[in-house]
Design brief:
CATH architecture of the largest domain: Alpha-Beta Complex
Helix content: 40-55%
Oligomer: single chain
Number of helices: 14
Largest sheet: 10 strands, mixed
Number of domains: 2
Order of helices and strands: HHHHHEEEEHHEHEEEHEEEEHHHHH
CATH superfamily of the largest domain: Transposase Inhibitor Protein From Tn5, Chain A, domain 1
Distance between the termini: 20 Å
Shape: globular
Strand content: 15-25%
CATH class of the largest domain: Alpha Beta
Number of strands: 12
Length: about 425
């Protein structure tokens, strides 16, 4: 395999210095190596072996595996500095007048694994709503994680994440674990709540926040929790929810003679798509405060309207939908970490080792977001993909320069090929 890393990225090292990680030198080197190689690697499967094959004079991949499996550190040794850094960086933006509202997006994502990986503790069979149809429910073998994204002005970061396991899976895994190693079952709501509580304590008092999520998270518990924090919620909801004692699907019929409000909220690509909207205020069942519910259609003949909820009654229909569209980039985040950084390509067995892998991959992605947020005039980064391409080009240049210098010094082409291309001593003439 052609080597692609001869020296680790100076910018990535600068980023790790900013985090002030409390790791030993070997732990730090492996975190740096995995993160750097994950960004550079273009192979379809980014295993430790594949990643370390990209590094010139790299240690054996088993050393990296041991760092994940048995080295005495945890995923929180990366997560805590990342949370502190991302909030601090965005608050600097706020202090400079770069934004007044913090948008917090919540989503979960399922990463499919091969069926032969069921022996890995973090891998489980999860309900897959994208494949389910009606009463026929589909389940996919893989990992499921919850992700929290924060955005202030034009800058955004993944704030935190959490791996989810079903309760019966946790019970099964705990049968083989000692009392001090047992896992605790947490519902998706509890994972989200814990992250939001941590976020709340890091924010300045009364900092304005809008929490955004789809209908899968629109539970009464989460709505009430967010309002207790002084935060507003804008989310999608299902048609079977009850507003003032009447299902939303019935309200859609009752309001059929009410004129539509035509809105054109700008999407993330800045294109405007018209929507026809009807709005009604009232109270959801078991929710002790007024909300505004929108019934949205793409056109008059649309028989499958979308329903949205907003707790801020001062916003216009246009403002509500414009803000909700800020939730879409979290889907893009999941694409990058899964498809381009190899979030689901781990092969380590223990749950704790998988958490470390996730922490390193999200560290790599936070680095890419940091580079995008602090783009220099000569770099012209518009999206994370631009940062990835720039990162890879820099490494390619460094490898080429190093290979040329090494060839001049040793004057032995087979040796050059062995070191930089992984080709053996037998070289065709």
């Amino acid at each position: 395999m052609i080597k692609q890393i001869v020296q680790h990225s100076a910018k990535l090292i600068e980023f790790l210095v900013l985090l002030q990680l409390n790791l030993s030198k070997p732990q730090y080197r492996h975190v740096l190596g995995i993160a750097d190689a994950a960004i550079v690697c273009e192979a379809p499967h980014k295993t430790l072996t594949t990643l370390y094959d990209l590094i010139v004079d790299a240690p054996h991949p088993s050393n990296a595996a041991d760092c994940l499996r048995i080295s005495p550190w945890s995923a929180n040794d990366l997560r805590e500095p990342l949370r502190e850094f991302t909030i601090g960086d965005l608050m600097q933006v706020a202090n400079l007048g770069g934004g007044e509202l913090l948008f917090v997006s919540i989503d979960d994502s399922l990463t499919e694994k091969d069926k032969g990986t069921t022996c890995l503790e973090a891998v489980d069979w999860h309900h897959d709503h994208t494949k389910s149809q009606g009463k026929k429910q589909a389940y996919t073998n893989g990992t499921q994680h919850i992700e929290i994204r924060i955005q202030l002005g034009n800058q955004a970061y993944v704030y935190d994440w959490g791996l989810y396991l079903r309760q019966k899976t946790v019970r099964r895994l705990n049968r083989k674990r000692g009392k001090d190693q047992r896992l605790s079952f947490r519902t998706k709501y509890r994972i989200v709540r814990a992250i939001l509580v941590d976020l709340k304590r890091r924010l300045p008092a009364r900092f304005p926040v809008y929490v955004l999520f789809d209908s899968w998270y629109a539970s009464n518990k989460l709505l009430k929790f967010c309002r207790r924090q002084g935060w507003h919620v804008i989310c999608a909801i299902k048609s079977n929810r009850t507003l003032d004692g009447v299902k939303l699907s019935k309200w859609n019929q009752r309001l059929k003679h009410q004129p539509y409000t035509r809105v054109n909220p700008a999407a993330t690509d800045q294109r405007k798509r018209p929507y026809l909207v009807r709005a009604r205020q009232g109270r959801l069942k078991n929710v002790p405060f007024e909300v505004c519910v929108l019934i949205s259609k793409r056109h008059r003949g649309d028989k499958r309207p979308k329903y949205f909820l907003c707790t801020d009654l001062s916003l216009s229909v246009q403002q509500i939908l414009t803000i909700y569209k800020k939730r879409w980039p979290i889907e893009v985040d999941n694409y990058y970490v899964k498809q381009l950084l190899g979030l689901g390509d781990f092969r380590v067995q223990s749950y704790e080792a998988v958490e470390k892998w996730f922490a390193i991959i999200f560290l790599a992605y936070t680095f890419l977001q940091w580079r995008l947020n602090h783009t220099q005039p000569d770099e012209r980064f518009k999206v994370v993909a631009d940062v990835i391409r720039h990162h890879r080009r820099q490494h390619a240049r460094h490898v080429l320069e190093a290979a040329c210098e090494f060839a001049v010094i040793c004057e032995n082409m087979p040796q050059v090929l062995r070191r930089f291309a992984g080709i053996g001593s037998t070289v065709p003439t």
